[in-house]
Amino acid sequence: MVTASPSGTKYEAVIGLETHCQLSTATKIFCNCSTEFGQNPNHNVCPICLGMPGVLPVLNEKVLEFAVKAGLALNATIAPYSKFDRKQYFYPDLPKNYQITQSDLPIGEHGWLEIAPLDEAGQPVRKRIGITRLHMEEDAGKLVHAGSDRLAGSTYSLVDYNRTGVPLVEIVSEPDLRSGLEAAEYAQELRRIIRYLGVGDGNMQEGSLRCDVNISVRPVGREEFGVKVEIKNMNSFSAIAKAIDYEIERQIAAVEAGETILQETRLWEEGTQRTISMRTKEGASDYRYFPEPDLTAIVVGDERLTAWKGSLPELPAQKRLRYETEYGLSPYDARVLTDDRDVALYLEHSIQAGADAKQAANWVMGDITSHLKTQKISITDIPFQPDNLAELVGLIGKGTINGKIAKEILPELLEKGGSVQALVESKGMTSLSDPAAIGQLIDEIIAANPTELEQYRGGKTKLLGFFVGQVMKQSGGRAEPKLTNQILAERLKG
Ligand SMILES: [Zn+2]
């Protein structure tokens, strides 16, 4: 995206994301402590994650499996041989005074993912975003600043080590993103992939997915990058987009005013909708990385790699494309239906059970989704199964019931599930599609409304709607709409 400034110079933003995804293993990366969120402070701890002297970390094999699967799904090259390193830093949230992470030999490199935001015509604009690397590491603890003083703010800090040693995969993108929208699309696609794989929940509110943005601006056509600013503290996709767009404007204005952009870390302030300076960076920090001596090298053999590759599910981008080509759905519908894998699978199972794809898609995106929203439940929680939806769509297709009746009985079906046919029969709701029966009903209605008939014949043809309404009312909504309209039009002519 190119932004023109008041001076006429055109600028472009160069944006990269560093994303930390928590891997949803039951236990921590180097010990057997639980990773359960929301426990009392310092409940999920042991001598290993508390960094006591003399203890030895052991790699949780599930962490390796999840990280490799994430790497494969991101089209990365998986390192057959990699290792862990110590990153030295002193901060109260890290009891060992170093973090175990991967520095020069990450588990995955040179990947990419595709974003496909829709343009104004509803067509996807596909773009590949490079993934520089992904690596495994342990999370740090959490500081809680407490006490309050009118001048000094909090007066003391508490530390909770439950999160210390929780497994993370850090995913670093290439600086391929150009706008807040693209960055938000990238982060959403990353979360979709993590969720599809079942290796993380991507919950931003609980901190399971955290994005840091690196952003600079430069005049269009210039090769070299501008000074890079880091933004932290965004906990929603819309905050990522807004923070970036704000920062692009701020940096262009500063450059135009002849100011120097400082290399710094800024925080997104949700309340004021702006970024504020947190700290300036003076050169690169020296973390004095060295190989972690307490852990053995990580070797991923061909056999394991092939097995993990074979277990990957169909990914969101593949599904979107298939929904458009195979099911004939619009890019917008394909996008909505594949956002949550459970919803996508529900639709697919219903199509496999014989439902027309477009009809089934409409029911899933319409009445079923609004039911899930009002009940605050997931699609896997409803007793109305995919084959029940196929049956419903089939009965409408055959003319046994009409769409209006289907809408009427759906709430009961969503609550109780079971055979649609049986419910329709027990309620006597099969549609009235016998021309003679509909004709007779229409004759009765015309006879009972002579004034409206006279007005209709006098040119007030919009009264057709009134007669249709009467037929629907008298038949309890069962009259087949197409046939009703056809017979009514004939009889009203006289
Ligand atoms: Zn532990």
Structural overview:
38% of the residues lie in helices and 20% in strands. The protein is an alpha+beta fold and 494 residues long. The chain folds into 3 domains: 2-303, no CATH class; 314-426, no CATH class; 435-493, Arc Repressor Mutant, subunit A (Orthogonal Bundle), CATH 1.10.10. Strand 13 (229-234), helix 3 (237-256) and strand 14 (264-269) form a beta-alpha-beta unit. The longest helix has 20 residues, at 237-256. The relative contact order is 0.10. Zinc ion (ZN) binds next to loops.
Number of helices: 15
Helix content: 25-40%
Question: Major sheet: size, sense and barrel closure?
Answer: 10 strands, mixed
Q: How many domain modules?
A: 3
- How far is the first residue's CA from the last residue's CA? 64 Å
Mean model confidence by pLDDT: 92
Which regions contain 5 or more consecutive residues with pLDDT less than 50?
Answer: none
Which small-molecule ligands are present, each listed once?
A: zinc ion
- Strands, total number: 17
The gross shape turns out to be elongated
Structural category? alpha+beta
Beta-strand percent range:
15-25%
- Radius of gyration of CA atoms, rounded to a whole number: 30 Å
Give a quick set of tags describing it.
three-stranded antiparallel beta sheet; alpha+beta; Arc Repressor Mutant, subunit A; binds zinc ion; 17 strands; ten-stranded mixed beta sheet; 494 residues
